[in-house]
Design a protein that fits this description.
mainly alpha, disordered C terminus, disordered N terminus, 15 helices, 78% helix, Growth Hormone, Chain: A
Length: 427
């Protein structure tokens, strides 16, 4: 990476919010484009194959970078200039999308081409999300972190409402390469503010990866030790991993549930995904205004139990009652914000900025590691016995797991027993 002027460091709470929101706005536009493409590609695989196994493989390919490469991405983000990481990640995704658009234009696309793009998008997204999340703690006062997480959940909910509905409409009037071109344009709008807005860097006690050879393996181990020494965080990761063993395949197989059980098509899939997005939007607005329980972990536990209950209800919904499933997935979306918002805020508020990238990627990689085990078998099992039974099992198990978090002192006292004082910000 070429040398650029050093980014400013910020060590107090007198932080102007305008730079953050300018960057955030560009990312919001890009997120909509990404959502459009994700919906279009998944529907392409669904309509072309009708196979739960194909969708499971697509989800596994998309998760692989987060699980396998995530910890190393975090170590690199902690060493590299975070602004440049975000720019190169967005640009790399856009370039790969252009190539796939050309393949669609010449009608020579194959399934493995789609898988490669999903892999690249996931890798770039992992780098970008880690850099942006770690930078947020240095751009936003700690007292506002949970509200910013709520705002992010509102954004995710908004694009999840608009993206599938708009994507289903665009599939009727545009070729696939046209939809891919929209994503490239929105990526350019996300990169533009990063060229002018300064992104703070954490203060370093040792040379960074740009000043000395990077010992990435040592950095990853250091991040693992940090998590291991925090029993509450470690216990939470175990809980999330067990839940994802069944939940991630359930979400991945949603298109099959819509087509095979409810007898729907792209429009019906758009409705049910929009229901989830509307729930996330409502949950994000609620979390932004409320801020969650004083102990953020209680909000997280409530969300875990709520998601489980909602998924179980969807699993028992009769095939003639699609509106009931849409309403229930609205509730699931609401509960998703109660998990994601507090978890990110806990890490941003309590983890040393110099290891935040590693800890965040380790956290999200560990949370999804069980998916590697479950997805390869979930597709064939769902093809054999039906996806509805998977929803029932996943929902009941997750609901019980969420309630168990209240009974484990290490998880219940997560924020009180952190390994080091919060240094990312100070009120």
């Amino acid at each position: 990476m070429t040398e650029q002027p050093a980014e400013p460091t910020i060590s107090n709470d007198s932080r102007p919010m305008a730079p953050f929101f300018i960057v955030w706005s560009g990312q919001a536009i890009s997120l909509l484009g990404s959502n459009l493409v994700q919906f279009a590609l998944i529907w392409y695989l669904t309509a072309t194959t009708g196979s739960a196994t194909v969708l499971a493989i697509a989800s596994l390919v998309g998760l692989a970078p987060q699980i396998v490469l995530g910890p190393f991405a975090g170590a690199l983000v902690d060493r590299w200039n975070r602004k440049r990481v975000m720019i190169f990640a967005d640009a790399g995704i856009a370039f790969a999308t252009i190539i796939l658009a050309v393949l669609f234009a010449f009608d020579v696309v194959a399934f493995w081409h789609v898988y490669i793009l999903l892999f690249i998008r996931s890798l770039g997204g992992t780098l970008h999300y880690t850099a942006m999340s770690a930078s947020t703690a240095l751009m936003v006062p700690e007292k506002h972190l949970t509200r910013i997480s709520g705002l992010n959940q509102t954004l995710y909910g908004g694009v999840t409402i608009i993206g599938p509905v708009l994507g289903a409409y665009l599939l009727e009037i545009l070729p696939m390469q046209g939809i891919l071109a929209i994503d490239v344009a929105t990526a350019a709008l996300a990169i533009a503010p990063l060229l002018f807005i300064p992104i703070p860097q954490p203060k370093k006690g040792e040379p960074t990866g740009e000043e000395a050879p990077a010992n990435i393996g040592r950095d990853v181990v250091e991040g693992m030790r940090y998590v291991w020494k925090w029993p509450g965080l470690f216990g939470m990761l175990v809980m999330i991993s067990l839940a994802n063993l069944l939940l991630q395949p359930a979400f991945a197989l949603l298109p099959i549930l819509v087509t095979e059980h409810f007898g729907g098509a792209a429009q019906e899939l758009g409705w049910i995904e929009a229901g989830a997005g509307l729930g996330m939007l409502a949950g994000g607005l609620l979390l932004s205004a409320w801020g969650g329980f004083k102990q953020r972990v209680y909000t997280f536990i409530m969300g875990a139990a709520g998601i489980g209950a909602g998924m179980a209800v969807i699993g028992f919904t009769p095939k003639t009652m699609l509106p009931m499933a849409v309403g229930t997935i609205f509730f699931v979306g609401l509960m998703i914000t109660a998990i994601d918002g507090p978890l990110v805020a806990i890490l941003q508020a309590n983890v040393d900025p110099n290891v935040q990238g590693r800890v965040m990627t380790l956290t999200f990689s560990a949370a999804k590691i069980m998916t590697v085990i479950s997805l390869p078998i979930a597709g064939p099992i769902a093809d054999l016995i039906g996806v509805q039974l998977w929803y029932r099992a996943a929902g009941i198990f997750c609901a019980l797991l969420g309630v168990s978090g209240l009974l484990i002192p290490a998880i219940r006292n997560l924020e009180k027993d952190r390994p080091v004082p919060a240094t990312s910000a100070a009120d």
